[in-house]
Amino acid sequence: MNLKPGIAESWETKDNKTWIFTIKKGIKFHDDPAFESGKGREVTVNDVNYSLRRLMDPKGKGVVAWILKGYILGGEEFSSGKAQELKGVEILDDRKIKFTLTRPYSPFPYRLTIYATAIVPKEAVEKYGDDFGRHPVGTGPFAFKNWVADAEIELIRNPKYWEKGLPKVDRLRFVLLRDEMVAFLNFTKGELDLVNIPAPAVSSVMEEDGSVKKEYRKYVFTKNTLARTEFYVFLLISPPWKGDRLLRQALNYAIDREEIIKFVLKGRGVPANQMVPPNIWGFASNNGYQYNPDLAKELLRKSGFFKARELKQRRKTKLDFMRGKEKEKAEANSPDDEELRPVRLVADAGGDTEKIAVAVQEQLRRLGVNIKIDVVQFPQLVDLAFKGQAPIFRLYFSAIYPHPENFFFQFLRENTAPHGNNFFRYSNSEFEKLYIEATSISEKEKAESLYRKMSELIIEDAPALFLYHPEQWVLIQPYVKGLRLNGLEFFPFEKVSIER
Amino acid sequence: MTYHLRKFGQSLIALFFVVTLSFFLIYKAPAGDPVKTMLGFQVTEEDVQRLRSELGLDQSLVIQYYIYCKRLLKGNLGRSIISDFDIRQEITRRFPLTLSLAIIAILIALFGGVILGLLNTFYRSIGPIIDFIIVGIGSIPVFYLGLIIVWFFGYWLDLFPISGYKGGMNLLPPSLVLALAPMANVARITVIKLDQILGQDFIRTAYAMGFPRRKVIGKFALKNALLSLVSSLSNSFALLLGGTFFVEYIFGWPGMGLLAVDAMLNYDYPVIQSIVLITAVSFITINLITDFVYGLVDPRVME
Amino acid sequence: MKKNRLKNPSIIFLILVGILSIAINLFSPYDSIQINYNASLQPPSLKHFFGTDSFGRDIFTRTFYGARISLFGSAFSLFSSMVIGLAFGGMAGLFRGKLLDYFFSLFSLTVWSFPFIVAVIALTAAFGRGVFATFFALAVVNAVLIGRFVRGEVIALRERDFIISARAIGAGDSHILFQHILPNILPSVLVTTILSFSIFITTEAGISFLGLGVQPPTPSWGFMIRDGIHYIGTAWWISFFPGLLLTLCVVSTSFLAEKLNP
After folding, report:
1. How many helices (H) and strands (E) are present in chain C, helices listed first?
2. C126 to B29: CB separation less than 8 angstroms, yes or no
């Protein structure tokens, strides 16, 4: 995947530290009552400046400031309110804007593809205030029309879109349904044009050999592997993983990913043997975890966890034979029985994730490691992840942009939770060095080998229990033409047309 | 008059305690830091502190309570901390949706129940069967019943779209599910009351005077049973409110019940507080109205 | 009279379910949480009376294993709430201590302002999820309701002649409570309790259904219904049987309560 110029026409840099972006002419905002005449005006360099500053505005809630504040010079000071000006952003002329970064960082343009960096008009933001998120105004192929909470979101065609001839359809309607089976049924009734095939429906749609059943052949069936990794985070500062790499590796070898994919996901996935998915460059193809129960048992036996447990078990048996004062004294001297208790795994509620937890629990039980499942809602899971309140919990990382660096900044020390998304509390100086080096150079080949080295480090250190990369199985109505899905879960609807 | 005043006074006191209780309950919850949840990934301690003071969460409990009450009196219910929407707007939008469900459900319960009760009284032979059906259906847990109906009518018979909120037909299945338990109650009370009343002297007198059967039942019997029906419906309102949680969840009906379920599952404190408040207010209001109607229909109660 | 009661189909049914749930291991060769992917999603058959779920677990076994939580957990929680409610209600009603009575009334009035299930869900969420939280919340709310009821009854009773004469003779408070008041209110409390049983099991199921109660892979009826919710159109048996049993238990207790309270 490559970067396509959007509002920016071109960009250049000599040292990966100073970037000059030139914006296109004639791009207009969507029509909206926020504008004077109700008509969207032309996008200027001031809008770019305004939008990016807004991200880091100390008066805002700061939810997305992290995208830029550590990278743009003066960003930290500006976003914490200590400085009034943003040194790293400078308007050069009516089409050029200059960014100065805190250090050489080659993936910078990729960062500017994150949805939160979209260019927005000041008038609309000021008019709608806190509710701007419920009534956004931008420059894309579709303009916002309506959002009925828990029901639907409607977008309409932007006739002024800067790509000529696009979009081809008049209207997009996203129906918000809680139950995936209900969505599937609505699709088969013809009320939806595009749907994900949920696990319970797979057997209705597909034959055993993977071909589509007769009744469903009239639809277009597509498989789409996502650039997303599902894993369980090992909280590295907590027992039993702390300092016990062999244990973490053992667990990674103990998981039969194919079994989970086949029976729980009904085939809708690809085993993940490392953090970076296979469709992103930087993937270490000669490496990663495969299911190997014998190796798992061997590593487990060598692990600290196992040894400690054996010790505890023997001590406990001894205690059972003691009596009275002697027993009390011995009990007081022996440390907590942590190794004998099942490890608490936290997963969030919802069909697939709960079932996967049960499947993993069973597989680890075969290895001799006991897990207790605790199901919470997703917001609680996030909160718990930040606070590091569970030894192992479910999480995932979905590529925001098609660059491996994406998958690696969650291992940086500076991003250790609660300051960032390094929920593992991973800390490795060699990794940090590789990261700085890889992100400061532009030559793709050299960078790729560095990223691959980082992948291998992560594989070896096993800060997570890698599970799978989801595969979307999608059914599309036959009259929908031109929809090409991609791993980033962006739907290029502007290229879609309806032919009845 | 004093009766009504007393009842009203009690309601106000109850309301005050509900507000206080809901406020403190939320803060005792071990659920998690709402601020962290709001901010998501990649934030610093500074950001957290800033937001916390913005929301006023770093001040003493008493001050927060004071601010809360002040806000309430102005009509401001706050914003959701999970999805950041204005709570009052959202409730205003959803309330009619849930209300329409409830009203249709009560109507179904009333008419269906009375008809069933009448059938039972006058066709003694099938009485026990109807009795069994009534108790049986009324006992099925609401969420299970909803699932059965979805499966049976939605999948098997393919009679109606199983979710969505537009149009009349969509209202019917969830309302029906909601109505069934109250309907059983209404039916049972109708039977009991009719038996009671029809055994009384003045009925026999009416017949002796030559009134047609239908008129006797309609004019005298049902009217007298009205009081008990009103009381039963008011009790059923509680059942109904609880039921809307599940019914809206199953049918994907975007009303207050669904909002409440989501808020409770996600520990969305401001929304939970608001829902608790609204629920208690409606409940207290209904009780007040019932007491009022009771007082009108049967002045003896007011002693 | 007693003979007829024992033959009552409701009682027989409930006892049967109770026995099956405790002794399920004797009746079924399957484990309630044993995963067997090869047997997944089988419809009811001679091999699996109630079919299997997506993990190949036998629904029949899980349903009766889950009955332990749903039935016995509810029973225990109900019993505790009854005892506590009786105690507090009795004390509040009997002892004219203004302060205790006043606070109790206000507290109960507040709880009374909510539909039962709303109060329980809110408390469960507040106590942290899980089986214990759910039953604790149930016990608390019900204790308050029973307490309120008992208090009313006690207040009505204490003005009666026989109580006044007992006091005149010099009988102490606890003597009056146990010998005179309790026997008089016990029948109505018992009937309320039986009715509450069905409310308890339904509410616990509802809470587990929403995801606030039991944690996987432990079965409880509400949780199993939730498990099968996506399979309603295809593997309907996953939700159907636990729900059926739940309904039958509720129906039985309703009929039982009706018999005792015509």
Report:
1. 13, 0
2. yes
Nearest-CB residue to B40 (from A133, A189, A382): A382
* Cis? peptide before A418, omega within 30° of 0: yes
Reported ipTM: 0.79
With contact defined as 3+ CB pairs under 8 Å, the chains touching C are A, B
The pLDDT score that the predictor gives to residue B254 is 83
- Interchain contact, B33 vs A383, CB within 8 Å: yes
pLDDT in tens, A134-149: 899 999 999 999 988 7
Is B37 close to A134, i.e. CB distance below 8 A?
no
Is residue C4 predicted with pLDDT exceeding 50? no
Distance CA A124, CA A134 (A): 12
pLDDT tens, B26-50? 555 544 555 555 554 445 566 666 6
Interface test with B, best of A59, A61, A422 (most B CBs within 10 A): A61
pLDDT at A440 over 80: yes
Between chains, do C112 and B14 touch, taking CB under 8 Å as contact? Answer: yes
The neighbour count for residue A293, using CB atoms within 10 Å, is 14
* Residue C225 to residues A65, A182, C66, C197, C229, Cα–Cα distance (Å): 43, 17, 11, 20, 6
Residues of B in contact with A175 (CB under 8 A): 164
Q: Is the dihedral of CA C208, C213, C218, C220 positive or negative?
A: negative
- pTM of the predicted protein model: 0.83
Which residues of A fall within a CB distance of 8 Å from C129?
A: 375-376
CB contact under 8 A, B17 and C110: yes
Structure tokens at A281: 């460059």
- Using a CB-CB cut-off of 8 Å, the residues of chain C touching B239 are 115
* Contact call for residues B232 and B46 (beta carbons, < 8 A): no
Rounded Cα distance between B92 and B97, Å, is: 10
DSSP A472: E
Distances (CA, A) of A282 to A224, A435, A444, A446, B144: 20, 12, 10, 11, 50
A387–B33 C-beta distance less than 8 A: yes
* Measured CA distances, C130 to A387, A463, C80, C210, C233 (Å): 21, 29, 19, 12, 29
Hey, are the CB atoms on B141 and C115 less than 8 Å from each other?
Answer: no
Number of neighbours of residue A301 by Cβ within 10 angstroms: 13
Contacts of B46 in chain A (CB under 8 A): 80
Contact A220, A478 (CB under 8 A): yes
Q: And the tokens for B139?
A: 């006992």
C-alpha–C-alpha distance, residues B198 and B190, integer Å: 11
DSSP state, residue A251 = H
Q: How far is C122 from chain B (nearest CA, A)?
A: 7
- The pLDDT assigned to B30 comes to 47
Q: Which residues pair with A291 in a beta bridge?
A: none
Cβ of B254 within 8 Å of Cβ of A149? The answer is yes
Residue C7 has a pLDDT of 56
Asked if residue A299 has pLDDT above 50, the reply is yes
Neighbours of chain B (3+ CB pairs under 8 A): A, C
Structure tokens at A441: 């150079």
Q: Note whether A240 contacts C: Cβ–Cβ < 8 A.
A: no
* Residue A235 near residue A392, CB atoms below 8 Å: yes
Question: What is the reported pLDDT for B130?
Answer: 75
Do the Cβ atoms of A294 and A236 come closer than 8 Å? no
**C-alpha B225, offset from chain centre:** 23
Pairing status of strand A480-481 against strand A220-225: unpaired
| A259 neighbourhood in chain C, CB within 8 Å | 37
In the DSSP assignment, the letter for residue A212 is: B
- What is d(CA C134, CA C123) in angstroms, rounded to the nearest whole number? 8
Strand-strand pairing, A392-398 and A371-376: unpaired
A-chain residue closest to C232, CA distance: A181
A128 touches chain B (CB under 8 A): no
